Each structure stands twice: as structure tokens, then as C-alpha cells.
Amino acid sequence: MVNVAEGGDVVAAVRDVSKIYSLGGHQVRALDGVSIDFRRGDYVAIMGSSGSGKSTLLNVLGCLDRPTKGQYILAGQDVAAMDDETLSRIRGRYLGFIFQSYNLIQQLSVVENIEVPLSYQYPPMPDGPERCRKLAELVGLAQRLGHRPTELSGGQQQRVAIARALVNNPHVILADEPTGNLDTATSHEIMDLLEALNRAGRTIVMVTHENDIAERARRIVRLRDGKIESISEVRR
After folding, report:
1. 178 Cβ contact list (under 8 Å, min separation 6)
2. Rounded CA gap, 158 and 155, in Å?
3. Please, are residues 216 and 195 in contact by the beta-carbon 8 Å criterion?
4. CA 162, CA 16: separation in Å to the nearest integer?
């Protein structure tokens, strides 16, 4: 794994971001003037009740949704107003995604699933296949390279998803309820892995509704009605 140099520079930031949806003739303000910086090596948990805006914020950070108002600065670029094709390139270059439901392709093997993000890159990464194998080893799946998702446990599938999120050497890893489908013991194993990645310098932004999972991060951002209610440092 290629470590990310530690430092205090901002790798992603939202500035006065609002997101308004029109539903049934009514306007729903999912985000309301949210501003927050994410620095290199940061580890942030986003929490809030249903409808608080945490999923919308993660979608904005992932370039999956556009803010109605405000700026989203990613790797020094304001991506809020970019077109879909440019956003797709930005996602592939700067972001890695970990989903609650893993989102693996069932017909592909472990190493092939890890390699999927590289198929969207041009020119192709010359050491791509070797990098995928090394990442599989990193997440403890060296003996499962040829296995398909149906032959893996939930925890092993999430490990594949983590390796896939790392393959493009992203600036930020976005994790949406990464332990939501796992039992307690497996959840702790996955969180141990994310902590190790963060200690190596990876920037992680995670949505979770579980307090014990959030407390594994360095900072907790709590949202309420689309606004930031509090930002707190985690005491260890």
C-alpha cells in the first residue's frame, strides 16, 4: 500500500452548502448552509437521525449529487458546478467508496472486483493487476483471490470492498454504514482495518448511526435538520 503523507492540508471542503429537493410541489431542504473541512489523514464520522442530511452530505462529497448552493472543493477544485462527465472522472481519480451492501459484482472474482475502478482509468495503471493482488493481501484475502462474492462471508466481502476503494489511491475514502450488515465481532474487525488505514495516512469520512462505531473515528459531526449541530473530537 502507498502511504499518504501526513499533514494539515485540506483535501476536501464544503462551503455554505445547501441541497433542496422538490417533492410533491414542496421544497425539502436536505442540507442547509453546511461548511466543514476534511484534512489529509482525517477520520470523520457523520451522525444524525433519519432525515438529518447525513446521506445527502455523503452523496455531495462523493460527487453523486450536486449542491443547490455553495461550493465543494475537492483536491483544490470547485466541483459543484462540473458536468456529469467531469464529475465521473473526478470520482474515479480522487474518491474511494465503501458501501453497506458491498456492491460487488457477483460474476467477478475477488481480484477482479478490486480491479473494477481501474477499468475506468485512461491510460491504464501499468501495475494494476499486481496492485490488486497486494491490496487483497493487505485486507487479509490473499488465499481468496479467485473466489466469487457468494463464496465469501459478509466480512470478507466488505474487505474486498475496502481493497476496491483503495485501488485508485484516492484522496478520500467515503464509507456509508460500512458495518451495517455485519455482526459485532466482524464489525470490530472491519473497524480495526479502517483504523489501520487511517493511521497510515488515509482520509476517511464515514456515515454511521452507531455510537460505538463513530467513536472509532477522530471527529464526530452531528447533523440535525440539514445543519451541523456539533463537531467534537473523540477522546481516546
Report:
1. 98, 99, 100, 158, 162, 190, 194, 206, 208
2. 5
3. yes
4. 30
Mean pLDDT of 101-129: 86
CB atoms within 10 A of CB 212: 12
| pLDDT tens digits, one per residue of 132-157 | 999 999 999 999 999 999 999 999 99
Interior CA angle at 112 toward 127 and 198, to 5°?
Answer: 70
**Helices marked H in 27-182:** 54-61, 84-94, 110-115, 128-138, 154-166
pTM of this structure:
0.91
pLDDT attached to residue 2: 29
Give all domains of the chain, ordered by start, each with its CATH number: 41-66+83-233 (3.40.50.300)
Report how many helices (DSSP H) and strands (DSSP E) the chain contains, helices first.
Answer: 7, 10
- 125 φ/ψ angles, rounded to the nearest 5 degrees: -70, 120
Helix locations, 116-220, DSSP H: 128-138, 154-166, 184-199, 211-214
With CA atoms as reference, report the closest residue to 43 among 219, 190, 174. Answer: 219
Do the beta carbons of residue 145 and residue 111 sit within 8 Å? Answer: yes
β-pair partners for 232: 220
Q: Check whether 22 has a pLDDT greater than 90.
A: no
Distances (CA, A) of 110 to 45, 64, 114, 142, 184: 28, 25, 6, 10, 24
